[in-house]
Amino acid sequence: MYKKGLRYTLLVGMIMVSLSAESQPPYMIEKVISPNQITNFNNQKLLIIDFWATWCSPCAPATKQLEILQETKPDDVFIVSVSDEKEETISAYLKKIPIRLAVLKDYLPNSMIDLFSVQRRPYSVLLTLDGNILYEGHPSGITIPMIEKYASRMKSQPKKKWSDLFYTVRNVSPTPNVTLNKELIISRQPLTEQKMYIRNGIFQYSGPFSGLVKYLTDCSNYQIVFKDMNDFGVSMSYGESELSNSKLAVLQLIEKRLSLNLQTGSKPMEAYVLYVVNPKLLWDNKQIDWGSDMNPVYMVGTDRIEADNITLKEVANLLSDIKGNLYYYKGNDNSLHDWNFHYHYNDLMNEDLEYNFGIRLKKEKIILPLYIFSPQ
């Protein structure tokens, strides 16, 4: 069974795609609880992120060893200690047992603990300033000779500022036991993997702005154009019922909130157009049931697509993203359907769609609607 409320979950080879631990910084934090009291960040060659918690008794001696390492190699490595606990809990602990490393509060919606798949504590990650992992595991495994070895290999180092490594998130989302606001809250954030779900009647999104546009407009990547700007990350929350009233109205509101100009346009393109030639073969929405909430979910395996509650237009957009060619549905069927078909080889996909779903693909030129974004 798949988790209820999950929207557009992508799996490759039946393994869920998540943020890679080698994802580039900046890493999201909620707050710097206390600065590094041993050394300042001055573009050292290496970074250590140490994950700890106030309830972790082995963390205290491990942290002391890292403090000694920081004192010994202040020009080669910069060390931060990260906890996902409440700020009050961390601050109270530091009054009793001070930590001289930089102490950061993790940002839970896009936590580094999830990013680096931290399963236990203490746990440390040694990496370059560009985010390449050199070591993962117990902090005792990071030694002075190890730091010297990796630092000596860095003949040239990237010029980084603190903000290039850690991004302090503003407009932090409320905790689950707080009454959530159904007003639209949206802010720019560093680019991260797309996450989209509904919890307690609130739609939550984080990821590329283009992904949010695709959800609100039912378009594909081919229909989104950035003029004099690049794609960027956003974090958004909004009431589910308010969102369902008019997604395009929400997009217009987002346009104002983010100081963007949105124009619509069109261009001729060659596309594989989906035609329903035998509607009786189309599956209804009862063939697959991954949750009673009826939120659309799909899986992409090595050669098959499975989906629960996906429209024809959404299937076309999904194929566009996966196949690298434009697929388009210009009919009027907006109902939800379930799917299970081959997609890897074109001949097999065409045969599967036509004989099992009544859909025929025809290559032709179309006028493709565009959503063009530019800064104000």
N/C terminus separation = 45 Å
Residue windows where pLDDT falls under 50 for at least 5 positions: 1-22, 171-181, 292-296
Strand order of the largest sheet: 8-7-4-5-6-3-9
**Strand pairing plus helix content: what structural class?**
alpha/beta
Label the overall shape: elongated
What gyration radius follows from the Cα positions, in whole Å?
A: 24 Å
- Give me the strand/helix succession: EEEEHEHEHEEHHEEEEHEEHHEEEHEEHE
Q: What is the average per-residue confidence, as pLDDT, rounded to a whole number? A: 83
Number of helices: 10
Outline the biggest β-sheet.
Answer: 7 strands, mixed
**Extended strand count:** 20
Strand content: 25-35%
Binned, the helix content reads 10-25%
Oligomeric grouping of the chains: single chain
Description of the structure:
This protein has helices at 59-72, 87-96, 112-115, 144-153, 162-165, 209-217, 240-245, 247-257, 312-323, 346-357; strands at 11-12, 15-16, 27-34, 46-51, 77-83, 102-106, 123-128, 133-137, 166-168, 185-189, 195-199, 202-208, 224-226, 233-239, 260-276, 297-300, 304-310, 327-328, 337-342, 359-375. It has 376 residues and is α/β, with parallel strands linked by helices. Strand 1 (11-12) and strand 2 (15-16) form a beta hairpin. The two termini are 45 Å apart. The model is unreliable at 1-22, 171-181 and 292-296 (pLDDT under 50).
